[in-house]
Write a structure and sequence with these properties.
With 363 residues, this protein is α/β, with parallel strands linked by helices. It contains eleven helices and 17 strands. The chain has helices at residues 45-51, 101-104, 145-148, 154-164, 178-189, 203-211, 240-247, 269-272, 286-298, 313-322, 339-361; strands at residues 6-11, 20-25, 33-42, 68-75, 87-90, 93-95, 115-116, 128-132, 137-138, 170-174, 193-198, 216-219, 228-233, 248-256, 277-280, 305-309, 328-332. The longest helix has 23 residues, at 339-361.
Length: 363
Amino acid sequence: MAIPGTMTAMRLKGPGRALERDVVAVPDPSRTEVLIEVLACGVCRTDLHVLDGELPDLRYPVTPGHEIVGRVVAVGSDVMSLEVGERVGVPWLAYTCGECDPCRRGLENLCERARFTGYTVPGGYAEFLTADARYCLRIPERYGDAAAAPLLCAGLIGYRAYRAAGDARRLGLYGFGAAAHLLAQLARAERREVYAFTRPGDEAGQAFARRLGAVWAGGSGERPKEPLDAAIIFAAVGPLVPAALAAVRPGGRVVCAGIHMSDIPSFSYRLLWGERSIVSVANLTRDDGRDFMRLAATVALDPSVETMPLGAANEALARLKAGTLEGAAVLVPERGPPLAQRRNSQRTSDSTIETTRQVASGK
């Protein structure tokens, strides 16, 4: 299915560079894909790791963005699960092979040939994208487009990390950003105590955590009076691992929830002793996505978002890196012409080019 027309995309053309605003062709959906008009796309810390070249096997140009809310505008020939007009979410996990050892063991999040939205396949910092229909998620109607965007990664990865933390009654959250602010609300709904750890001196971030129900909030080097049952680290800061180990009780667990982290410094075995444990969370599964969306439909999460135009993607990323966002930034594409009009415009342009060619050749 050929989809004529062009669109705007914010693309990365080398490590450490600013995104560039490009005009590119609207992509064609394959037989298992849908074409989606992007309504909103969240800005995630993983996007910073892409920007800084910290993830392996990056191939430029890259269109980042994997917290995507959009409307289906075309479907591939084999797609039966989605229809034109449906609102869907596109998460980080874009494709798994179903054949490798992890896939056969039910661990598709560890697939050896997985593809990832906004990293190894084009993402949502654009007006349109294609996505495999089998990996799209239906979003609860109670959330608007911008509010739903952070659910697609901050919510999903936060939820997988939350489950990895077990039934911790006292839960520590290191790095109080997009994921932690959603997870704090979920934990409070389940009557758990939330302890928020921010950058030292971040009084605004600590006040934000308290407003969301945290029973304690302080700097990452501080320790609350009560030992934690578990801690989840969202900040990509290796030295937080021994700090979190020191804050959890014997038998407690530290969950590392980021895709990238700076080196973990050496620490005394005494911190780990007492059957404390460290575990990482990698990616997500489709079941994670469906389970979390069902939960989000019943728990009234209130995502804190700041919307910005797609063209302001570099500003949004800079503010995320500086830690000056409260909650999540969400990019909203400037509404261009409808796809049908883009098609007609492209046909007119192609016809004009052909007429000019014929005149020039004397036909």
